[in-house]
Write a structure and sequence with these properties.
Elements: E1 5-8, H1 18-27, E2 33-38, H2 50-59, E3 64-69, E4 87-91, H3 98-107, E5 111-116, E6 134-138, H4 152-166, E7 173-177, H5 182-191, E8 195-198, H6 209-221
Parallel strand pairs: 1-8, 2-3, 3-4, 4-5, 5-6, 6-7, 7-8
Helix pairs in contact: 4-5, 5-6
The structure holds D-xylitol-5-phosphate and zinc ion.
D-xylitol-5-phosphate is lined by residues 9, 11-12, 34, 36, 67, 140, 142, 145-147, 177-180, 197, 199-201.
């Protein structure tokens, strides 16, 4: 089982405490910073973008985990100036050319990740396993923070772990995104998730960010 990694969702950060939050994350060994990019078309919302990624890299040594909720991402990867070690995820539902989008991420030096909405079956991964380092399973419908977990996605995490292992890919990570609360994080971990997008329901709930991170990690070790 791959070790559990944290990827706090930067759309949930309190911007009045932005730099101190980034310093705290670095001190606590947070592994990734999750950046949600929405285009108002694939999902009905706007969030962060290319300039935000550039600024974030200037302010923090933590690698980015860029979640592209945008149509036709294959033509837009170049806009992001992807750095080595960064994850970039593209949605299978957002393009007719998923392989091309994943190849563009690899070509740019990033770590490609295929993202699936809750209702998208795992067979979407059948012919791209050589092209990815991770799978992102949405555990809510993408677009907004603060939603409730879709219960069927817990079983989907377990199915996905089995699917990858049976195909000789225990190295491919499973990221979960949406309502990763303290309790849900434990259940997701037990089902086989190992990269956790933590937003308003855990890391950014209340003021004690360090305590929240400790609580998540203790939950996984319990
Ligand atoms: C969308 C976002 C949200 C959110 C996660 O992709 O990543 O899912 O920030 O945090 P919650 O669901 O806890 O608000
Ligand atoms: Zn996300």
């Amino acid at each position: 089982m791959l070790s559990p990694l944290l990827s706090p969702s930067m759309m949930c950060v309190d911007y009045a405490r932005f730099t101190e939050t980034l310093a705290l994350f670095a001190d606590l060994g947070v592994e990734y910073l999750h950046v949600d990019v929405m285009d108002g078309v694939f999902v009905k919302n706007y969030t962060l973008g290319t300039d935000f990624c550039r600024q974030l890299r200037r302010l923090s040594p933590i690698p980015l985990d860029i979640h592209l909720m945008i149509t036709e991402p294959e033509w837009k990867i170049a806009w992001f100036d992807v750095q080595p070690g960064e994850f970039v995820s593209v949605h299978a539902e957002a393009t007719d050319h998923l392989e091309r989008a994943l190849a563009a991420i690899r070509q740019a030096g990033g770590r490609p990740m295929a993202a699936l909405n809750p209702a998208t079956p795992l067979c979407a991964l059948d012919y791209i396993l050589d092209d990815i380092d991770a799978v992102l399973l949405m555990t809510v419908n993408p677009g907004f923070a603060g939603q409730r977990l879709i219960p069927a996605t817990i079983g989907k995490i377990a199915d996905c772990r089995r699917y990858l292992d049976e195909r000789g890919r225990p190295d491919i990570r499973i990221e979960v995104d949406g309502n990763v609360s303290f309790e849900n994080a434990r259940r997701m971990r037990a089902a086989g998730a190992d990269l956790f997008v933590c937003g308003s329901s855990s890391v950014f709930s209340g003021d004690d960010l360090a305590g929240n991170i400790r609580k998540l990690r203790e939950g996984w070790n319990a």
